[in-house]
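User: My collaborator sent over this chain with a note saying "see what the structure looks like." That's all I know about it. Can you take a look?
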Amino acid sequence: MLSRLINFPASVNSNILKIINFAWFQCVWWLLILFQSQAVVGVLCLMGFWLWLTPKVKSDATLILALMVIGMLVDSTLMNAGVFIFENYSNHLVIPFWLALLWGAYAATLQHSMGVFEGKPWLCVVAGAIAAPLSYLGGAKLGAVEFGFSTSSTVLVLALVWSVVFPISFVIVQRIQRLPKQTPA
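Assistant: Without extra context I'll predict from the sequence alone. Here is the result:
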């Protein structure tokens, strides 16, 4: 029984894995949006679970780290430009860690539940311009972030940013997938 549990990830069908990945991301999104910093430990455990489950451990882990850094740069720039306001975070230059974790969770979907967008740059432009602002709007409605500008101005800025970020995310996926595989010494 224990050996079946340990080998569970290797036996997961790729379509089932996409569904699990989608549900996993939704859990992470809701936890972080509703509980922000209080959800960090739980979300880190969920990240560990994902890295145990995925057959693409190295590329997923690399994507998670890379997009957390990119996300911190993007959203910190937006925060410092006054687009985002985080309660009790007005004197910081970098976004809260919980938001960086959300970028990491987003990265973990790119080779799985959002893999359908890979190789379709114009669809990525449109999807990024629509879906990401809706996600931030949802976060704002639930109190995770405030907008420093009008809602329409913020949505426009986010649509422009994410019409670039989403397609670039898949360029990063392709570059990471082309990295040489390390062989054991």
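A starting point for your reply to your collaborator: The longest strand covers residues 84-85.
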